[in-house]
């Protein structure tokens, strides 16, 4: 029995942690947006009867002020998360992956407490939501979850490139599976049981994740205790100097000289990560507005079904389609094909005029998640075993900067093109995908200098 348990421990690792985090995130998204609108309405009209009626509540003044506060929330979450993410990756190379993985879940519990208090205490200002955003950002949020999880997988698959890519694809699929479950559950709980139930489920996900990490996960390699690391490095140094040291380690892992063209490969892979994330966030920021506009005229319920179907297919593409295709094609070939299908789905979306065309977009884009899984695997193959956290830390920090940049590009572009061609933002996204395809082709043509790095076409 103990042997079976240990074998299962090697098979099931960080995937449930990613699932719980993404589920909780998508449960919270519609709930906190509605909470902000409710609070803004109450502060403006001082009348709960007006604010309980969605038609009366959704005035231009409520919409504009809520949009401003939601932008502040997004800015707080993304900007605050960048410095911790740069530091925590290098720290996890020495202190262990579990420590870094636990921190976002613990502070997210505090965030859930703040949001629950805002629902239960009517007099609390809407600006308390910024404290909830600060708690999420202080430990890097999803950035820290990703860097610690993918570093963990890189540690346990260091000797096998194909195994590493497959494991990272499965972990990547948990983002979409968790998103699908969270999106459906969040909308149902908010509509049927109210905000307390939604934020309660958000908090429960984090409690389950903490218990899972503590009771199930084991660090893949021997580590020094966190306290001993801090104490030895703090001898004669200020804590600020220690923080700067870990930040320098992240930058050094990415920018140091490497054999052949490996440094350039790593930079190009991180650039691909940046563009992929830019497109994904841009998609989320304008998709609802676009689908609700004529002639598509989606309702909120139709949008929820479409989003859930799209996430399910993306997850199925990574869990089922990708392992099957790996027997026939090389991973770089699959990564490039994935980008082409993703670009085609955005072109189709830009010209969609009815419901069936929009749903066909989800089918065409099904292989779209493969590229990022391959990118993560190739990036981890370039750096050494003691640089995994540092490299993923830098890469994830780059992803965090996309939130504001994508909002500025696509939310700024959409109103300008609305009178002439509303689908233009999706044509821009397809163009970005073609840029990723060109970069991946460039990478595949570079000579391999390390046995770990399998880039053959």
From TrEMBL:
Keywords: Membrane, Transmembrane, Transmembrane helix. Gene3D superfamilies: MFS general substrate transporter like domains. It is found in: Membrane. Its main location: membrane. GO terms for cellular component: membrane. The chain crosses the membrane at residues 12-32, 68-88, 100-119, 125-154, 166-189, 195-217, 266-293, 305-326, 333-351, 390-414, 426-444. It is a multi-pass membrane protein. Belongs to the major facilitator superfamily. SLC46A family. This is Proton-coupled folate transporter. It comes from Hemibagrus wyckioides.
């Amino acid at each position: 029995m103990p042997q079976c348990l240990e074998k299962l421990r090697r098979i099931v690792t960080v995937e449930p942690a990613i699932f719980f985090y993404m589920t909780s995130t998508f449960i919270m998204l519609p709930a906190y947006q509605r909470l902000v609108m409710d609070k803004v309405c109450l502060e403006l009209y001082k009348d709960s009867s007006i604010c309980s009626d969605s038609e009366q509540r959704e005035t231009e003044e409520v919409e504009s002020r809520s949009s401003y506060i939601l932008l502040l929330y997004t800015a707080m979450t993304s900007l605050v998360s960048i410095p911790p993410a740069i530091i925590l990756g290098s720290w996890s190379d020495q202190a262990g992956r579990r420590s870094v993985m636990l921190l976002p879940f613990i502070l997210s519990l505090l965030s859930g407490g703040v949001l629950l208090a805002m629902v239960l205490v009517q007099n609390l200002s809407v600006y308390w939501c910024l404290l909830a955003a600060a708690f999420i950002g202080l430990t890097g949020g999803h950035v820290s979850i990703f860097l610690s999880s993918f570093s963990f997988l890189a540690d346990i698959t260091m000797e096998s490139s194909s195994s590493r890519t497959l494991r990272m694809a499965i972990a990547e699929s948990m983002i979409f599976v968790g998103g699908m479950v969270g999106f459906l559950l969040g909308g149902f709980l908010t509509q049927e049981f109210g905000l307390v139930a939604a934020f309660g489920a958000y908090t429960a996900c984090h409690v389950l994740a903490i218990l899972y990490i503590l009771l199930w996960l084991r660090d893949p390699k021997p580590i020094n205790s966190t306290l001993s690391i801090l104490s030895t490095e703090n001898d004669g140094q200020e804590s600020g100097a220690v923080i700067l040291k870990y930040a320098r380690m992240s930058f050094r892992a990415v920018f140091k000289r490497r054999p052949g063209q490996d440094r350039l490969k790593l930079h190009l892979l991180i650039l691909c990560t940046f563009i992929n994330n830019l497109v994904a966030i841009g998609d989320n920021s304008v998709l609802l507005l676009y689908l609700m506009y004529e002639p598509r005229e989606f309702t909120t319920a139709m949008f929820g079904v479409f989003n859930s179907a799209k996430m399910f297919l993306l997850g199925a593409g990574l869990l089922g389609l990708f392992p099957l295709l790996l027997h026939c094609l090389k991973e770089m070939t699959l990564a490039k094909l994935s980008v082409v299908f993703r670009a085609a789905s955005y072109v189709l979306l830009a010209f969609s005029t009815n419901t069936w065309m929009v749903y066909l977009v989800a089918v065409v884009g099904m292989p779209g998640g493969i590229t990022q899984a391959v990118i993560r695997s190739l990036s981890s193959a370039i750096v050494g075993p003691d640089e995994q956290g540092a490299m993923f830390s830098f890469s994830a920090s780059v992803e965090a900067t996309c939130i504001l940049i994508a909002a500025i590009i696509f939310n700024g572009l959409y109103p300008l093109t609305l009178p002439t061609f509303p689908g233009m933002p999706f044509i821009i996204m397809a163009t970005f995908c073609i840029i990723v395809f060109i970069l991946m082709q460039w990478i595949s043509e570079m000579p391999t200098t390390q046995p770990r790095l399998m880039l053959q076409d």
